[in-house]
Amino acid sequence: MSSTEQQRRRRVRAQGAARHRGAEEAGSFSESFTALGELAYGGARVSATVLDLTTGLPLLAIDDRVALPTASVGKVLLLIELAARITTRDQHTPGILDKTPDDAIADSGLWHRMQVPTLPLGDLGLLVGAASDNVATNVLLRHIGLDAVRERAESLGLSRTALLDKVRLKRGPDDAPQFSVGATAELAWLFYALSRGQVVDSVTSQRVLDWLSLNADLSMVASAFGLDPLAHRASAHGLQLVNKTGTDAGVRSDVGLLHGRQGGVAYAVTVEFVDSSLHERLRVLDTMRTVGRDILEYVY
Question: Model pTM?
Answer without folding.
Answer: 0.90
